[in-house]
Every structure is written in C-alpha cells, then in structure tokens.
Write a structure and sequence with these properties.
By secondary structure, this protein is an alpha+beta fold. It has four domains: 108 residues, no CATH class; 164 residues, Lipocalin (Beta Barrel); 87 residues, no CATH class; 251 residues, Alpha/Beta hydrolase fold, catalytic domain (Rossmann fold, 3-Layer(aba) Sandwich). The protein is built from twelve helices and 38 strands. A hairpin with a 7-residue loop joins strand 12 and strand 13. The longest helix has 18 residues.
C-alpha cells in the first residue's frame, strides 16, 4: 500500500493513493502509463494531461474543482500528443507525433496546435500540413501550409496572447539556422525576434522573455555558445569547444536576470555548474567537489531561477545551492516528508498552488497538488498504479575497480529473499556514448527482479554521467575496454557472493545487444546465455549506413573508429559463441537495421549454434505495439528461465523465426 505522510511546518496531512494489483506480470510491465505529462494552469484551476489511449495519445483538461474533464484534443488513430504547455490560464499549445508508414513509434511532425481549456477554438498555428485530414478530422481551423519545423520555446503565460517559438525551415534555405519568432496564440501571426548565430541552435530565454543565449554546432559537431545583452544587441561568442576544450549549455537565469547558470562538460572530471557574468564574461564555479555529473537542475516555482541540483546516481536528496532561502527551506521540508524520493516542483500558480511530482527507484511518478499557504499536499494521480512501491525492489548504487584501476559505477537490484548465489542478469545499457543508467524506476528491472533475477546495470567507460574524460575513455573501445568493464562487473558480482557463477546471462538492447553477443564471444566460459534486442552486430554496417547524415558519420568515426572492426563484430565471431542466443529486432528499425540481426542469426546457424530469433514487422528501434512488447519480453523470460532460472533443466528446442 502506498501511504504518503506530508508533514510541513505545523501541518500534517496523510494521503493514501489507490493501489492496484502488484503482481509483476509482463502484461503489467508493458502497459502504458496513466499519464505522460501533467501541467497546472497558471491560475491553478485546471490540470492538463497527455493520456495514452492505445493507438493514440490525447490531451485532456480536468477542472480541479469538480475533477471532471472539460476539454480534450484527440487527432485520431496513430497520432500522439508529444508535449504541451499552458500559454494562458485558459489556453494550451501542444504538438503531436504521427506513425508514418510501417513505423510503430510516433515521429514528431513539427506542427504547433492550440486549444482552449474547454476544448474549443482548436487551431493549427504552425505546420506544413494545413488542410490535411489530421486537421479536418479534429475540426481544427486551417492555415496556410509552411515547410517548417516549429518548437515551443517560451510559453509566456504572463502575456496570454503570445509565446516564443523556434522555427526551422525544412527546405534548407537557411543552411540549418533557425530563428525565434513571437507567436500570437490566437491568430497564428508571427514576427521574428532573433536569428540563430549557429546551426542546430537551442536557445535560452531570460525572465523578461528575451532570447539571450544560443548554442549549437555545424556538421563538425564542435559546440559553440553565444550570448547577447538583449533584443537588438549583437551575438558574441562566449565559448568555443575547439578552443576551451569544453562544451557549455545555458540552463537558466539567476533571480537578478543578469547572471545565468551554465552547465559545462569539462575536459576532465564531472560536468560543472557555473554562474556566468556577462559584465566581464567570467564563469564562477557554483558547486564544490563532486563524483558525478549534474543530472537535473531544480528551478524555483515562482522565479524559475535554479535553487538546487540532483547528481547522477544520487538516491533522493538534492544539493541545495542556498540552503537558507525560502524555497530551499520549503524543499528541504518536502524532501523529509517524501523520504527516499526525488521531489520536483512545478510552476507556482496565481492561486498559490503548484504540482509536486515525486519519484524514486520504486515509484514511477506520483502527482500531488500542493497548497503553498496551507503547506498541504493532496494526492492526485499515479503514473503507474500497477506498481505497488512496497512490492518493488530497491536499486542500490555500486562501484568496483576495473582491471586497470578505473572506478566503474553501476546499479544493482536484488530479488526478494536471500541475496547470495543468485541467478544474475547483466543488463548493459544502449547508446553507448553519453547514455547512463541512473537511480530511477525501471519497469524492466523490477519485472526481472520480481521473477527471481538479480539485475546488474553497469555504467561502463563511455557512459555519460561521470564526466567527459570517462565518456571519451570509451572512444574506439567497442569490444575492448568497454567490454572488459562488463566482464569485470560480472567477476565482481561473483566475488561478492551475489551471483551464482553457473547462472549468469547477459542481455541488452541496441549497443547493449552488441555487448551481450560480444560478451558471449569474448568470454565463452563466463555466461550461460546471451540475448540481444535491436542490436548491432556487424560494425562495418554502421559505418556504411546510407541513412546516416554527415554529423552522424562524423560521430561514429570518432567513437567507433574505422580500423579492425571485423575483430570486434559479433556477427563475424559466431564460431566463438558457445551458449544459447536469443535475438529480437524490428523490421522497420533505421537505427539498428534488422539486417544486423539477420546477419547474426545466419552466422550462428552456419556455425551450428543454438539461436532463437524473431524480427517483428512494423516495429522500429523502440517497440510500440503492446502485443509485440508482451511477446518479446515473454520470450526473454522463458529464455532466462530455461537457462539460468529455477526451471533451467527443462530445456526446450530453439526456434528460428524470420
């Protein structure tokens, strides 16, 4: 049962959320969340939610006084609301993604829509498909089509008629440079307020809604950060990665609206938070010594200035920049009330209310409506009500020394009961460069743990979250030191008595699939089985991918290299693999094309190895169809049970599926 005790100042409130069945069946694990995004209206009267409905995702507005739905937008089958923001107390701007062709996962269309809280006055404000059926079916007022990709930059709720948007022309006429425009959210009229000084730009707007920072890079992937004093001031370069050796991203302006917080990826050590002073272009370090990167910057609900941070791998409590200010004191009280959880504060409404979201390794996300005057938190909705926190297993941060002495972090989740000599699943993340596993709710990990498996996640060198040097230590180490880190992690789990050395399997998706098959080839006596999902298995195919752009090819040239790829391609090492293999993939995957899986499967068959392979029509790099998710995960669990689980003696014949 989920019981939340919220004790703030002299007020105590007990909130009990409804709890559904807590058994972790695969059907529970893959079901869509009750909501994806939640936003409180600026006046505090309405709650807007994006709600998954199977073959679509709708935008729903609820009146908090009656808890009744008063408005919604649903564009029909295969169209999903991807995001939204309140631009006034009674108007929302939102954007959608659509499933194109055979792909299951929705792709953003770059269009911006708007509707009132009651669902009326729906309009397509910006888009390249005005007049298309997507709009006629929704009774949306149509405008002139434009070949542009638009994104909401600043909702400007204090100016109810306007918002700032970034607009990128799709015809290539501006050489990859976007612009910022002031959009009338009622009429759709736009005026340009800023032109990007760099391609592929992202922007930061100050508290007065002026564009002051722009960062981006050309096809060489060299990051540049620009600053300007105001609307009519010229852009000036404040950081060039090729000169400073570090990348910088402007996060938020300080309360004074002059200085700004900037997150820097350093040449060595973890990422740092700096305070930038435009008066002398100086950067002052904000945080002291830290062992991991800043994962999240927490913004004041009223001023939108930073007041705290979460670090990668931290288990709950945030680091407060100024513990003595009012917001920090309130936040500290909330952290004590929601012990063992990360707490996030939404924007504060004019009614002195705001949303609080709490999350942890055992809670996907709970929403509370917080009364700032009464200091009370009222439960509203759980993101994943099927997951009873009391039935979930804790995720424990771990570290170990790799064979060359480098400290490698990770996460360990144990099943209930005795924590020794367990069947272990090594679960390397995808990416690989810059991606990392963190202390968050992971339904796959919880599902595996509930079925009796210890799950070890490793942030091998090359992972993000622990500084640029740690990340770059993985460059050109596919099948090398990155793989050795996974081997060393497995040996660590054995040495600690956690893993039964006769019951260890390795499984991953994308790069994790590569690492699983490479691990089986490189360490034939260590694992009892290997499973790869949407994996890449022939590294030469990555370099020759015709769908990759110039910047993508530049990236892979740096991180993968161009020499000796055959020696670290599992599809060319099938004869070394001595254990059963499970392979799954999506036929429409353009990130890791199904040809990788077919080549790996065929090589294993030719070598006389045991392989079970299935390629799912219509799926891409992320499986979106619930039936396909259930089937692929059910195959995985049966595979694990057969080879390292309680029923491992009941060995079934492998199947080969096209």
């Amino acid at each position: 049962m989920r019981v939340v005790q919220a004790t703030l100042l002299l007020v105590m409130a007990f909130v009990v959320a409804p709890v559904l069945a807590s058994s972790l069946r695969v059907q529970d694990m893959v079901q869509r969340d009750e909501f994806e995004i939640a936003r409180l209206s600026p006046d505090g009267e309405y709650l807007a939610l994006s709600v998954p409905l199977g073959d679509s995702t709708a935008l729903v507005v609820v009146d908090l006084r009656t808890m009744q739905r008063i408005g919604s937008a649903n564009h029909g089958k295969n169209v999903h609301v991807l995001g939204f923001e309140w631009v006034a107390s009674d108007r929302v701007v939102y954007w959608v993604g659509e499933r194109f062709g055979e792909l299951r996962a929705p792709q953003s269309t770059g269009e911006l829509f708007a509707m009132n809280a009651d669902g009326k006055k729906k309009e397509l404000l910006i888009g390249f498909r005005a007049g298309n059926d997507i709009n006629r079916a929704s009774n949306i007022k149509q405008r002139k089509p434009e070949m542009v990709y638009a994104a909401l930059l600043d909702p400007m709720p204090s100016e109810p008629k306007f918002a700032l948007v970034s607009v990128y022309k799709l015809d290539g006429s501006e050489a990859g440079h976007s612009r910022v425009e002031r959009l009338n959210v009622l009429t759709g009229r736009r005026t340009t307020t800023a032109l990007a000084p760099v391609p592929r730009a992202t922007y930061l707007v100050d508290h007065s809604h002026e564009v002051r920072f722009a960062s981006g890079s050309a096809i060489d992937n060299v990051d540049k950060l620009y600053y300007r004093d105001g609307k009519d001031a010229p852009w000036r370069l404040v950081n060039d990665e090729s000169v400073s050796g570090r990348t910088m991203q402007a996060i938020a302006f300080a309360t004074d609206n002059a200085k700004a917080y900037v997150l820097a990826t350093e040449a060595s050590g973890p990422d740092r938070l700096y305070l930038f002073d435009p008066a002398d272009s100086s950067f002052t370090k904000v945080l002291g010594e830290q062992s991991s990167d800043v994962a999240e910057v927490l913004l004041d609900p009223a001023t939108r200035a930073p007041f705290g941070v979460h670090f990668v791998g931290s288990t709950g409590k945030a680091f407060l920049l100024d513990p003595d200010n009012e917001t920090s004191r309130l936040y500290e009280a909330l952290q004590n009330s929601f012990s063992g959880q990360r707490v996030y504060l939404g924007a504060r409404s004019s009614a002195d209310t705001g949303l609080i979201v709490t999350a942890s390794d055992r809670i996907a996300g709970d929403i509370f409506l917080f009364d700032y005057k009464a200091k009370k938190a009222q439960f509203v909705l759980a993101r994943s009500p099927w997951a009873d926190p009391d039935a979930m297993r804790p995720m424990m941060p771990i570290t170990f020394a790799a064979r060359d002495g480098l400290t490698i972090p990770g996460m360990l989740t144990l099943p209930a009961g005795e924590g020794k000599a367990l069947p272990l699943l090594l679960y390397p993340h995808g990416g690989p460069i810059g991606i990392y596993d963190d202390w968050v709710f992971d339904p796959v990990v919880q599902w595996l743990a509930s079925n009796g498996y210890a799950v070890l996640q490793v942030n091998y060198r090359g992972s993000g979250g622990y500084g640029r040097a740690f990340e770059q230590a993985g460059f050109r180490e596919w099948g090398g030191k990155m793989q050795d880190d996974l081997t060393d992690a497995t040996q660590w789990a054995i040495s600690q008595g956690i893993a039964d050395p006769s019951r260890i399997c390795i499984y991953g998706a994308s790069y994790g699939g590569y690492a699983a098959l490479m691990g089986a080839a490189k360490e034939p006596g260590l694992y009892r089985c290997a499973a790869g999902h949407v994996g890449v298995y022939d590294l030469r195919m990555i370099q020759s991918n015709p769908d990759a752009g110039v910047s993508v090819r530049t990236h892979f040239k740096a991180v993968l290299g161009e020499e000796n790829l055959d020696a670290v391609s599992p599809a060319l090492l099938a004869e070394r693999i001595q254990v059963p293999v499970l392979l799954t993939a999506g036929r429409e995957d353009v990130t890791a094309p199904a040809k990788h899986t077919e080549r790996m499967r065929d090589a294993l068959i030719k070598a006389g190895k045991e392989v079970d392979a299935k390629i799912y029509p219509g799926e891409g790099h992320t499986f979106f169809d619930e039936a396909n998710q259930i089937d692929s995960y059910s195959r995985l669990l049966a595979f694990l049970d057969r080879h390292i689980g309680a029923n491992r003696q009941a060995k079934a014949e492998p199947t080969i599926a096209q």
